Amino acid sequence: LTKYPSPSTLGIRSLPSHGWSPPQKVTPRPGSCGVRCRELHAGGERPTPSPAAAPERRPFSRVTPEDLAFFSKIIPDRTITDPDILEASNVDWLKSVSFSEVLLRPQTTEEVSQILGYCNSRNLAVSPQGGNTGLVGGSVPVYDEIILSTALMNNVLNFDSVSGQYRLTAPILCVCICVKVLADGRVLDCLATLRKDNTGYDLKQLFIGSEGTLGVITAVTILCPRKPKAINVGFLGRCMLGEILSAFEFLDRECMRPLNTHLKLANPITDCPFYVVIETSGSNPTHDEEKLHQFLEEAMTSSQVIDGTVATEAKIKALWSLRERVTEALTHDGFTYKYDISLPVERIYQLVTDMREHLGDRAKSVVGYGHVGDGNLHLNITSPTKDPDLLASIEPFVYEWTARFQGSISAEHCLGLKKRNYIYYSKASLAVALMGNIKTMLDPKGILNPYKTLPDDLQ
Question: Which family does it belong to (predicted)?
């Protein structure tokens, strides 16, 4: 294989060109929260690379024809080197670009075990990949790592009709009870069906949120409750969270503009500062409708709701589209800076208003939407084009603000490459150091998804 290309512009990140000196180390200072902000951006005699920029390539081996022959023997017809097929796996949802020349598509735990055991012995770096929908550069390689796709691991192994548990191979990187393949190829089987098991450490929890840096999940057991007999969906202009809800999503007025303008989705109710999509689920349609209408009547009488509509079966999908297609609508606004923040519920929207005040007219739009029930805010900031000056105004302000109110800088989308050096805003130095110890123990050569999750001072 040819040597990986010298990168210049890589979507959301910038890789150092050959001969460029490595980024300065980020050294946590003593204290409960580690590095906060200024140390991450401290200058010197030369400009300091962004904390989101990739570090220099580590001394991993490069793939040889002999390596390809080995992989082809294990997974015939699923060792991919065709650039046209590889292209989709080398680009993530936010158009972060990578240069892998090998895509492996195993179908079983045993195949993954053989692949990782071999890569570990050869010191070949591996980038595990599930749906490749990441927003932080965690699901695509940084340099020439081998892409290990779990896309073909999509088989239902069995279903227990009594407990409602499915056992299946996993095209995803983290979910409840599972089988993991470690960096050296050993298989850690935690695929129990017991709901309760308090014997020793719950090892599977280590792998949730680890972004494939500790192992590759190849099978899972998931609980599947029966489908509710009654589902009601409402779209409201402001409301209070009630006990009848099974879903409670919100979006602000600024989200409605791109939905209307770019996707031609009409606002079904009066113009309001905020909108919520609520869903109730139950087993008795008559009873659930009565509870929902009673709740809405009380909410509107007390002016907690300005306007609203309740969906019939045909309208449910249309109402959910107003929430679920916000991200798509914003892509038509230009370049989008996306932040996935977890905050105390009483603070969930304050970050949006403070960011608007902080940026003024430097941003085209600042919008907020997300999951109110668990305090998850999706803060999106758009500009006509990618704007380094705007980014410098957003970061580290957004992380400092989140840390000040005891939030998390990543509620759902992990840290990946882009946010790895910001981890100290959400985790104490000792916690991060322990994560580094765990990584070293489970993957001493660092072959699994290198350059991701952990900060550069631990790499």
Answer: Belongs to the FAD-binding oxidoreductase/transferase type 4 family.
